[in-house]
Amino acid sequence: MYSLGQQGRAVGEVIGELTEKRANDVRWADGRTFGMVYDGGPSVHAVAEQAARLYLHENALNTQAFPSLAEIQREVVGWTASLLCGDDNVAGFLTSGGTESILCAVLAARERAAVERSVTEPEIVLAESAHAAFHKAAHNFGLVVRKAPVRADFTADVDAMAQMVNANTAIVVGSAPQYPHGVQDDIQAIAAIAASVDANCHVDACMGGFVLPFVERLGRDVAPWDFRVAGVTTISADIHKLGYAPKGVSAILHRTKQSRQYQTFVFGDWLGGFYASPNMQGTRSGLPMACAWAVMQHLGVDGYVELTRQTLINADRMRVGIAEIDGIRVLGDSRFHLIAMGAEPRNGSDEQPVDMFALGDALLERGWYHDRQTPPDNLHSTVSNTNTGVIDDYLIDLAACVASVRGEHADDRTTTYATLE
Ligand SMILES: *Cc1c(COP(=O)(O)O)cnc(C)c1O
């Protein structure tokens, strides 16, 4: 039983205890966490912290009361749309994160299918690599899921997806790149499949939205995935990942205002007055929106290109290092900032493959934090500028840990990417 103390406590005491509570959290500032926190460096922290102080108390529920937040949303959405090669018709909203952007995209697709095509039993077509948030959306909004396998390279099997669309299909999903292995689906094929039944095509660029545009500027090949691909209807891009803004902000973009209108809930029959809500939230903090605005303004395109250059150096170095260690390998042909590391098959040898979860435990003992995934058992890294300067140390520890866990088996086989309490 918890009970709030009768008497309040002094500011210093409260903050002191909060500070102590953090002692067992991952120490992301050391660069040894692959994912969850994205560190753009000291000046990015400074601009975000100062913006946060300005907008700590503001409420984006009603942008008539806070016109600055309407402007901030318009500008951040507009900049994101231009990075994703949208034209002036592209319209969007800010949300609290990738999951909420995906919920909005699925809901809007369902509404459009109902209104424009009289679909009453809507379906979503996706690959098994598509983020779990799409299953959450289908569950919450009553869509039937048609789930296609991935190919040997972990990209969506688009031939299987083509067999799954029909007159009830409301939305077809592709990822650029997908989260588990960091590979990019064939978005052109997926958009064409969606268009063949007049369904929405959503590109999940939650991870790639603030990476791929800059990878392209660095002169590397990126297969088409953004609004330049005909048939792409909506795109989600998380500013709180490689956009380097603090948590709580993502963009959902629609190719047209008309498409966007399907995600807005309006209700005029309430004693509280006319109510309109663009996403899943009611009361909405202005803080993450202002932080996104400030971080994007501070970095500019050049800043993002530089952070992306460093991210690719880190990720490429990791891929090469992993390939050099006997017993482990990179799964799929990931070229960007996500890496899934699995056991190397032991052809013709009776030696047991490396237990990837035992390896994860051994790495954690040395302070390196990865998410665990399956099948097949693997360790996931979201590489970013956060990890600059530590990759050589990591690879030394990785080689040592692979050697030390040979023949070991971890009892804990869980792969929790979740908050269960
Ligand atoms: C992170 C992520 C999501 C979900 O975003 P949250 O911000 O965690 O809600 C969806 N898709 C992909 C590809 C992601 O990487």
Q: What's the CATH architecture name of the largest domain?
A: 3-Layer(aba) Sandwich
Could you report the average pLDDT, rounded to the nearest whole number?
A: 95
Please give the order of strands in the largest beta sheet: 1-7-6-5-4-2-3
What molecules are bound to this protein?
A: pyridoxal-5'-phosphate
- Percentage of residues in strands: 5-15%
Uncertain spans, ≥5 residues at pLDDT below 50?
Answer: none
Number of helical stretches of at least 4 residues: 12
Note the main sheet. 7 strands, mixed
CATH class of the largest domain: Alpha Beta
Shape: globular
Q: What is the CATH superfamily label of the largest domain?
A: Type I PLP-dependent aspartate aminotransferase-like (Major domain)
Report the end-to-end length measured between terminal Cα atoms: 15 Å
State the order of secondary-structure elements, H for helix, E for strand. HHHEHEHEHEHEHEEHEEHEEHEEH
In short:
The protein has 421 residues and is α/β, with parallel strands linked by helices. Helix content is 39%, strand content 14%.
Description:
The protein is α/β, with parallel strands linked by helices and 421 residues long. Helices cover 39% and strands 14% of the residues. It has 2 domains: 254 residues, 3-Layer(aba) Sandwich (Aspartate Aminotransferase, domain 2); 106 residues, Aspartate Aminotransferase, domain 1. It contains 12 helices and 13 strands. The strands form 3 sheets. A 7-stranded mixed β-sheet has the order 1-7-6-5-4-2-3, with helices on both faces. It has a 4-stranded antiparallel β-sheet with strand order 10-11-13-12. A two-stranded antiparallel ribbon has the order 8-9. Strand 4, helix 7 and strand 5 form a beta-alpha-beta unit. It is globular and about 70 Å long. The model has no long low-confidence stretch (mean pLDDT 95).
